[in-house]
Design goal:
8-stranded mixed sheet; binds aspartic acid; Carbamate kinase; single chain; alpha/beta; 21% strand; 454 residues; VC0802-like
Length: 454
């Protein structure tokens, strides 16, 4: 039997009412038998996510100070959510004692310590929710990532599932035949038996890994928004909701700052063409956004307008650069040797630019880069530009549509936005423009008006 994997994010497990809503959602569809839960997020009267409280606990313990306030807040959160659901306070406190033990452990290996403590937010959500369903007479079972075989690399704070994990996790489907499986998001166990978390927001990844391993019918990702919008609603007024998009479009949009779903969560489901549906826990009437391998052409070629980040561009000029073999390779290897990754590398006849994320730079980085580039490549001129925003027009329709670049460039010029660089990759899935960061909101609104409001 194939099931749906349902992941509920932090705000969806943050209050008693939300937990009841999850129970209701599961009862609506008998194929929803594998549930992945986050740690409680923000809620009215609780302005800090449990994960952030736990990160604060770790910091204090490592600094040698007392983390009682944060621990009390965590304890209070779980009691406030689960006691009104009929779970005895002693039971909730018994679950929380797992956290207390982990907090009291040695901090000698700080990365390992951090992950063991921080992962407990998800672990407690899963244990207590399974308890709640059982109390209500629903057959449900908490399953630990260790027992299920979610083995991950020992990159604490940024772990990845190991090769064999999928095969072992496939056996979860048989468990779902017997009971609703409740699984904590965000972490796995290393071969050595230590807890290791994914990067922040990693419960999305747990859901995707389980969906991929179990060959799920669908991966339903429940959150607190109706789905993915065609532009950032904080910048563009009332952007349309995207009904369906492809994995590739999703990847482009999340690269450009659409962070509704963890960046890595597409990969585990893509190979098996498992649809991901992003939807709102609190608005079931809305079917959300579907992410699939192929979408219908629909009425729009362009699916989204995205923008974000702060980038800087190293612009090199050298007469007859095109004849100098290995120039580009040597240039990029200078960035690589300094541990910097590059985002784009547009080039002309005698010029080439390397665009990198500004946040990677340390105070000495630019000086050292310029020095090494001058020494090794002797350009006629090299200039650095900071504060560039990248904005993108994304859509499978770019492949066959003529004139989109011109249309976008015209819209930007009418809005008085100067284009510093333009880049269309060979996939023809997105068109990226580099502009002054200060023009970003104006540019996004101009492009949205051009492609969506007409
Ligand atoms: N609780 C973790 C975080 O806040 C993981 C997650 O919710 O996905 O990053």
């Amino acid at each position: 039997m194939h099931y749906k994997v349902c992941k509920f994010g932090g705000t969806s497990v943050a209050t008693t009412e939300k937990i009841q809503q999850i129970e209701h959602i599961l009862s609506q569809d008998t194929t929803r038998r594998c549930v992945v839960l986050s740690a409680p997020g923000k809620a009215p009267g609780a302005s800090t996510k449990v994960t952030d409280l736990l990160i604060a606990v770790v910091k204090k313990r490592i600094d040698g100070s007392d983390a009682k306030t944060e621990l009390d807040s965590v304890r209070k959160r779980y009691c406030e959510i689960y006691v009104p659901l009929g779970i005895a306070e002693a039971k909730v406190l018994e679950a929380v004692s797992i956290l207390e033990k982990r907090v009291a452990a040695s901090t000698a290996d700080s990365a390992k310590y951090r992950d063991a403590v921080v992962a407990t937010g998800e672990d407690l959500s899963a244990r207590l929710f399974a308890e709640y369903l059982s109390c209500k007479g629903t057959k449900a079972v908490y399953i630990s990532p260790q027992d299920a075989g979610l083995i991950v690399t020992a990159n604490f704070g940024d772990a990845q599932p190991v090769e064999g994990a999928y095969e072992r996790l496939a056996k979860l489907a048989a468990k779902c035949d017997e009971a609703i499986v409740i699984f904590p998001g965000f972490f796995g166990f290393t071969e050595a038996g230590d807890i290791a978390t994914f990067s922040r927001g990693g419960s999305d990844l747990t859901g995707a890994i389980l969906a991929g391993a179990m060959d799920a019918v669908e991966y339903e990702n429940f959150t607190d928004v109706d789905g993915i919008f065609s532009a950032n609603p904080n910048v563009v007024a009332d952007p349309v909701l995207i009904p369906a998009l492809t994995y590739r479009e999703m990847r482009e949009l999340s690269y450009m700052g659409f962070n509704v779903l963890h960046e890595e969560a597409v990969r585990p489901v893509m190979a098996r063409k498992i649809p991901i549906r992003l939807r709102n826990t609190g608005n079931l009437k809305n079917e959300g956004t579907l992410i699939v391998s192929e979408r219908l052409p629909g009425e729009r070629d362009i699916i989204g307008i995205a923008g974000g980040g702060r980038f800087c561009s190293f612009n090199l000029q050298k007469f007859l650069m095109n004849r100098e073999k290995g120039f580009g390779r040597r240039l990029l290897s200078i960035f690589e040797d300094m541990g910097l990754s590059y985002e784009h590398c547009p080039s002309g006849v005698d010029n080439i630019s390397v665009v990198i994320d500004q946040d990677q730079l340390r105070p000495e980085s630019v000086n050292n880069l310029l020095r090494t580039i001058e020494e090794q490549l002797a350009p006629d001129e090299i200039k650095v530009e900071f504060g560039i925003a990248l904005i993108a027009v994304v859509g499978e329709g770019l492949l066959h549509k003529v004139g989109v670049l011109g249309q976008a460039a015209n819209a930007l010029s009418r809005a008085g936005v100067n284009i510093k660089l333009a880049n269309q990759g060979s996939s023809e899935l997105s068109m990226i423009f580099g502009i002054d960061a200060i023009d970003e909101d104006r540019a996004l609104n101009a492009l949205y008006a051009e492609f969506f409001s007409k």
